Amino acid sequence: MNLESYISPYARAVVCLLKGPVNTTDRCWNDLLHYQTEIQKYISQIGLELIVKRDEGFAYLKQMTDESGNTLGLVPRKPLGFECSVLAIILREVLEEFDSNLDELYTTACYITGKELKERIELFLPERFNRVKLLNELDSYIARMVQLGFLIEREQEGRTFYQIHRIIKEKVTLDQLVEFKKKLESYFNPISAI
After folding, report:
1. Which of 30-34, 39-43, 61-65, 186-190 has the lowest mean pLDDT?
2. Rounded Cα distance, 117 and 172, in Å
3. How far apart are the C-alpha atoms of 113 and 97, rounded to whole Å?
4. Is pLDDT above 90 for 76?
5. Residues 6 or more apart whose Cβ sits within 8 Å of residue 22
6. What's residue 180's pLDDT?
């Protein structure tokens, strides 16, 4: 039995997409681009939409929503939790700074170390927040970001660093970034009653 005779030519690309974001370096990238229309037609039958960001170098699947924001529920939505939300906001902010830096104009990948993340978190959080607990558990939150596909773990000469995946720009918009900062500020600096 020859498996290739039973499956469509874009099947491998669909399988890659169902596992997570597909990057230009993935083997199925060219198939994804070549069969983009067929893939969209196929996955739309189960309430998914193909998002291709050629200029950013990746593609991913997104659940279709109706006017009320409802989905078929293929992928359950789970809140990140406060700590991971803070980390996602910081990563989005770092990527925005990187993209607006003219010195990095011809570089597409943005990297950050665990130490740099720790420093960013310390600057980001208000004084009243329990930083010790967050910083002690930072490795587990970074691992969660890797699991979600927001970070790609890399190693060089025994040192670990992380590439910020550009998909975070799709998941955390600039409006959400501003809104989260406002909520954080109001939470830690509540208006006192007169």
Report:
1. 186-190
2. 17
3. 16
4. no
5. 13, 16, 28, 29, 32, 58, 59, 60
6. 79
Q: Say how many Å lie between the first and final Cα of the chain, rounded.
A: 79
- The reported pTM is 0.77
> Hunting for tokens 């983009």 — which residue is that?
36
Give dist(CA 25, CA 52) in Å, integer. 14
Quote the CA–CA distance of 120 and 118 in Å, as a whole number: 5
Beta-carbon contacts of residue 51 (< 8 Å; ≥ 6 apart): 59, 60, 61, 62, 170
Closest CA to 95 of 112, 79, 81, 80: 112
pLDDT for res 194:
44
Mean pLDDT of the chain: 85
Give CA–CA dist 57/48, Å, rounded: 20
CA distance 40 to 61: 9
Long-range contacts of 36-44 (CB under 8 A, 24+ apart): 38/8, 38/10, 39/10, 39/13, 39/14, 42/8, 42/10, 42/14, 43/14, 43/17
